[in-house]
Amino acid sequence: NEVVNNNIGIRIRGNYSRVYPSKAYNIYSRSELGNSSLNYPLFPDQTDDSYTRISIKSSSGDQYHTLFRDPLNHELIKGMRVVTEAYQPVLTFINGEYWGVQSMREKLDDKFFKREFNIEEDDIEVLENNAIVEEGDNDHYLAMISYVNTNSLTPTPNYDYIKTQMDVENFQDYFISNIFFQNVDWPGNRS
To answer: pTM of the entire structure?
Structure first.
């Protein structure tokens, strides 16, 4: 049964994963297309019922195997000090053509952080890969990297300063989980 019907914007996403037959893409709901949001509870374990952006992921390197390795890993680390994306498997059709099983995911952007952490959208800086700006700017991040590159973190005052610039526990759990799960698309190819 049809539950939502919007005109949407769509953009292919990813880096290396673009070579696979099943593409990943972002979906954008915009008022100039008819509706400013997708008004439906897309993820059963979330309380939100309105989204302006979502991602459809193709499982990239896992698309010839389980198709759900990344969502499973997100479920397994929910108790850790990391941000996870909601997940819903979807059967995908584009222009009536079957594109396979894919993963509908929340998009980690300024609107996600407003929903999840009540941080104003203008206060968010979203960076990908090597400080490529998605939202905001990268000035604070580059200053922090410069500090780390020019100062030892062994002295307590230096380490305490870095703790004011980043969530150290989140950083630790992020590395631990990616290493444990043997993420071959990390750290250089996250998109």
So the answer is: 0.75
Q: Which residues contact 40 (CB under 8 A, 6 or more apart)?
A: 3, 4, 49
Q: Amino acid letter at 72?
A: L
Quick one: CA dihedral 59, 11, 128, 79, positive or negative? negative
Q: Summarize pLDDT for 75-123 with one digit per residue, the tens.
A: 899 989 998 888 999 998 888 888 888 889 988 877 888 888 888 888 8
Tally of CA atoms within 13 A in the half-sphere of 107 that contains its CB: 22
- 56 closest CA partner among 13, 17, 18: 13
Residue 49, both tokens: 């019922």
Amino acid identity of residue 114, one-letter, is K
The three-class DSSP label of residue 101 is: strand
